[in-house]
Every structure is written in structure tokens, then in C-alpha cells.
Amino acid sequence: MFTFYPPLQAHWASTSGSRWFVVGTWLVTLNLVWTYRPGGRSIQASAPLGGVHDLDHLAMWSIASLGLAAEMLLMLIPWSLGWQRGTDPLLARTLFWFTGHPIVYFWLLPTYVSWYPWCHGRRGANCLATLMARGSFILFLLLSNTGGPAPSSLRTPALGRAGSFTHAFLTFAVFFPSLLTFFNVVASLESGARARGGRGLLAWFASYLE
Q: In the chain, where do the E strands start and end?
């Protein structure tokens, strides 16, 4: 991480290797998009929930990684090769955290999507609202990338007050798809428990302890 933080400078081979790693992930995204578009039908309509998650997951990374790619290609590699005498640390860190901030949700989404098959396989509860689950994935994609580098750059002058406020609001807005996921998972568990005979305000939960 710190080799992407000027004025620390990495060897040009290290930075170039990281660039090709990022390009490789883009190829994985393109392959997945091609795989989940059978017969020209809409991805949202034709792919299972796990497939929609995978597409959303890699699309999130592909968009987020543009900041890191721009930093490497336009700033760090020319600098490490000696083609330019210096670079702009503030711009470099802003581009880095354009990538770094959405990675938090990139790690979080696999946990969220794992709850749905867990509900079905271990508790016999089907996803109550598949459309809500798919919509929450799309909201994560939109809000995580538009949130940008703000949480890691709020105390720097790179964004300004208006930019910091906007990005902070979008970052807090990620709460809404998290809330949708929480509601959907708990409602699915309740629906499955009641189908098995659970009753009452909380008695349905007891059916999972039997």
C-alpha cells in the first residue's frame, strides 16, 4: 500500500507488475459478463442471485480500480522510470483512495450474499424478496464507487468542503442497501420458520433452536 503513497517510491518493476494484475482482473470481469448473458437476455432477469452478485462484485472492483490504474500509468510509473522529476502526492493519494474505499464493500458483499444460501441450506428458508436482494447489490455498486476517496481524505484539501460533504453523504448512504439486506435475511428466516409451524411475535425464532 505505502508504495502507492508518494513521496515513497517503489521500483518501476513492482509498479508495472501491479498494473498488469489490475488489467488481469478486468479480463475476468469481461469474461463473466460474457458468460452471464445467454441468448441476449437481460443479466438481471436471467442470472441467478449468486451470478448477479458476482457480476456486481467484479463491476465494483473494475470501476474502483480505475483510480489506481490512473495513478500507476500517469504518475508512478513515469516517476519511477525517471521520466519526470516528481509527482503530486495529494492527487496520487486521492486516486489511490478512489480505489481503496470501495474495496471495503468489495470484501463485504461476499459475506452478504453467503447469507441467502445459508438461510436456504441450513434453515430451509428461501429468499423472501429476490428483487430486493438484487437491488441492494446494485445500490452497493452505485454508492460505493460514487462515495470515492472521501472517508480517507476528509481532512485533506483535495476535495474541498462541498466535495467532502457530498462524498461523506454518499458513504453514509451505503447504510440503506445494508439495511435492505438485513431486513430481507431476517424476513426470509421468519417466513421459513412460520412455514414450519413457528408462531407469535418471537416464537418463530425458537423453531430454529429445536
A: none
Enumerate the domain spans of the chain: 2-206
Overall average pLDDT of the 10-39 stretch? 80
The secondary element (H helix, E strand) that includes residue 87 is none
DSSP per position, 134-164: HHHHHHHHHHHHHHTTHHHHTTSTTSHHHHH
pTM: 0.72
User: Is CATH 3.40.1000.10 the right assignment for the domain spanning 2-206?
Assistant: no
Using CA atoms, how far residue 47 sits from 16, 53, 99, 206, in Å, is 36, 9, 27, 34
Q: Which residue has the cell 434453515?
A: 123
Closest Cα partner for 1 from 73, 86, 76, 61? Answer: 76
CA-to-CA separations, 81 to 11, 15, 67, 76, in angstroms, rounded: 8, 10, 20, 9
Cβ neighbours of 84 (radius 10 Å): 12
CA distance 35 to 51: 10
Tens digit of each residue's pLDDT (9 = 90 or more) over 84-135: 888 888 888 888 888 887 887 788 888 888 887 777 665 666 777 778 888 8
Buried b (16+ CB within 10 A) or exposed e, 132-171: ebbebbebbbbbbbbbbbbbebeeeebbeeebbebbeebb
pLDDT of residue 149: 53
